[in-house]
Amino acid sequence: MRTNGYERAPLASELGIEPLGVGAWAWGTRRLWGYGSGYGRAEVEAALRESLAAGVRLVDTAEIYGNGESERIIGSILQEGGLPARPVLATKFAPYPYRLSPRSLLRALDGSLRRLGVESVDLYQIHWYSPVPAPGGLLDALAEAVKEGRVRRVGVSNYGAEAMRRAHERLASRGVPLASNQVEYSLLHRAPETDGTLEACRELNVTLIAYSPLAQGLLTGKYAPGSRPAGLVRRFGRDFGERNLRRVQPVVGILREIAEPRGKTPAQVALNWLLAQSTLPIPGAKDAGQARQNAGALGWTLTPEEKERLDLATLGWR
User: Where is the NADP-dependent oxidoreductase domain (predicted)?
Assistant: First the structure.
């Protein structure tokens, strides 16, 4: 299905939602993102409500975000009710070395459902690939969860192309389609284009869910040499060194040139570039303003010339 000149992500078409979600990693995560300092429960709730009001319904969380606090926050907001739309809930199982059995996954799912306060989730994902032991048992457990009705769709995260193909085949043998693969993808991280992941997703009709679609804020234009973000994830990340902050400025300049005639922001242009790739980006939002800005990526499309300009400007970031 085409929307505004681009093919919608398959999962978005199947669910009848906009091809944009909101990532909830920062909701309740204190040490890494600074939850409780500058933003808190009220701001997070406003971000969720604003996202839903703008048509952004996919909410992506995980059991390890804030040691379960992200799921608990979402669950408490759901319990309060009065939301402008029903969120589409996605969460993830963390395959730590000591919990790789099918039973571990199903117990973890129970915990996520309890914290979210729901009987089933729309998308349940394995958070990262664990080659030892072979992940077949975890995939079988995902299929079992679907058949039990506790999970509507299943996905993987941080899987390379070949691992994703094997997961797709294993699930198909159990009569369950692989809905998604969540990987890092942005104008500044284009590895999915060169390592075969994006091509495999298109071939298998698997939605590529793009996390860190704004390169953790680098593409917003808020940061420059001498102006680094707060929070451990970004403050000490290699991407936020002074050299990299200087290097990204020409890219941000192009984003601004494309954005300003449309009344858009660099972040909205960067997200729209991902929509044109038929992916489903999940930018974070710590408050209503950020949620509103994210939603501004919807309802329009880059011209082929603008897309090519961004492609060429960021080839060296692969």
Answer: 19-311
